[in-house]
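target protein:
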Amino acid sequence: MERSMDLSLEIKIKAFHSNKTEILKYTSMKKSSYTDWNATFSVSVFPDGVNKGTEGWLVILPNVKFKGQISFHNTVLSWIVSIIDANETSIIPRLFTKIEYDKEIHAGNLSDRDLSHAKYLKRSYILNQKDEFLTEGVLTLRCKIFLSWYGVLLKFPRWRMQNKQRSSFGERFSSMFQLNRSNNSYEVNTFTVSDVASDLSQGKPPSESIEGSTDNTENIWTFVTSTDKFRLSLDKRKNTAGFRLQETSPVMESHVKVAIEERKEKRIEIPSLDSETFRIILFFLMYEVLYEFGFYQLINVYKFSYLFEMENLQRRCAEELVKDVKPESLLEKELDGIANIYSDKYLSEILHNRRRTDDFLGSPCRDFFYSMPQSVFSKKGSEVGNSGDTFKVFDLTDDFSKLEQRYLFAEYVRCPRVYRKPQTELIEHNISLDENVWIFATSTDWFRLSLEKRKDSFGIRLLKASPEIRRKVNNVKAERKNRVELPEVDGKTFILVLFFLKSGTLYEFEFDELFKVYKFSYSYKMNYLQRRCAEVMFEEVNPKSFLGRELEAIAYTYSDKYLSHLLYNQHRGYFQGRCTEIISDDKECAIFFGIELSSLSIAYSDKYLSHQNREVMQIWSFKELVGLILQPFPIRNRVETDSSSDNFTDFDFIHDFCKSWIELNEDSTNITEHIWIFDTPTERFFLSLDERKDTLGTRFLKASPVIREYVEFLFGGREENYIALPKTDSETCKRVLYFLRFGEILQSRFQELVRVYTFSNFYQMEELQKRCVDLMVEDVKPKSLLEEVLEIIAVRFYDNYLSERLLDRRGENSESYFPPLRVDDTPLSDCYR
């Protein structure tokens, strides 16, 4: 939603030399953001002042009238007045500002001080310049009016509005200051005696302003950017932009102190800063508002705030930067990099929270969340929660029949002039209306819930669903307090719980969000919600994945029999189906299936699975099966093999990683002597062994002394460039090449890792062998069949590294290993009783 309005009016004063009567011009304006609301803007021009204090001055006063059921808070009314000369160009622009404008402006309700600040130019000065200012005796004025506000209260049902700052910042800012004149190719901007809370102009003719601007008083400092100069007053007695800059920046304050102590020139140079960025910073210091600038403009402001330790500005920049960045976009990655470079935990945190709430904001919970009446308060210290500088209070005291029809939404944005009362007074004022209204305080937000028994409200449903919440309420009631502390729960999780109480459904959230709701339901004994969370997590998780193992750990940690039964039935059904598919002569399949079957039968104490495992394992002796998967990989040339290559798939890996396709095509005529064929039973791999290039083949040579020795032997004997790998399947070869290319092992099952490990051992690829060991040992449980297999492998291949890793693993498991899941025969209906 727009939080500003602006328009321009032209006023002509005929016979200015003799005309001294008031001239009024007005126009109406309506914003599409607000229905049933409009504003009427008018400008009153007094050619010879309003009273004795303004007599002889040209005074311009705007007036705004509102119609509709909307009231604004902390409103700023600004107007820029300029003269249109004979060439139809605006000259002598002056900015006037009325802060905290909450009523109509006209001469009758303004003080003498207000009227004196509305003086534009002396009448005599205009008449002296009549050839330039008056066209046939007519003075033409242009008045640009800007109205902005920082809070809005809707007095009728309304969905939540999106708050965005929209204003013609360029026009507004370019005319904010009194003087722009050239000096050594710099633009000089004078910010001297003007009080930020009052008008920025001095009400003096240009000649007087120029004289005042060159007055070298002790508090006037010059700030030099890469293109412009800025004169700022650092007088602590006046609330100026310069004083605020010094006050908010410890670095700037230290620069000023050093210059004063060393009696240097009152001049601070910032050569890395452009003037536009400095203007934005000064504007923020005066109004605490960041308008919608471009991404990289805000980045420049952010960098300045970091270098000069302006924490508040840095945080506001971070919020604005994140606001419109799409997830997984290039801008988001750039912000991640900025957060790392500048060690900005706040930016990292809001980026992280933004990613986690993307699904939430796109879900049916969005309308539910936005329909909650809520207020935003400023936070003092650690009084409420521990994150951010504001917190929300959600008002959910109505019963559901009224809540469906009532969407009152009041929002107050950060503004230091809004919250004058102590925080406790604000909250006490909100809860003192009804003794049945209770506050549930989470770590981030507060929720006002009604516990009146006659209502079907959020509070009553929460009490019915959770005996633990009832106990907390009774304990607090005995202490005569209406506030329940939930410090371990964040506001979003509590909203999801309330959404479930209202709708009875859980939307598809991420695993960790569901897990938070699951923990809440467990802690507060909400059995039905816990069961629904278990079902949703189970439906979305593959039992063979990492999250599948996490579910098993969750079921054990929280003693969740229902979730254990779900996992158990899934595993058992899978292995019952697989037992019928085992072929007796498929030795390799039998051993690895037997390993998985054995682990499952131990974990779930399942006699049926143990029996199936024994039947599978009786087919072959254990040593014979282990020996099968550890067969060596012989090397042969084409003379020793009679395999046909007609039905082979050829893979071409001869190119240099560092060259473009054009270079590869130009080079292709001179590389045939370095191309070697690596022949597996099903596929062939063409590798370039030219060591002048960085190719897969050259990396293979460097990683494997065995391959290098064999290649040199064949090359010296002028044999054909051909190596046969009859016992190496193509998938294993692809995994090895992938590791050589990217330095990572593709996600593999245990038996696939064993094949790669055996290949790396035979060809003496030490780094690959160690990586395989790390992955194989990672998920091994103590005293399992997998551990026995790895022990045999370590002995068979004299692998000291594998033996050490197994010993280390046993030491870790002896301290942190928790017993496997045990499932009894309790019926599912009794799991949460």
In short: The chain is about 45% helix and 20% strand. The first helix runs from residue 112 to 116. The longest strand covers residues 138-154.
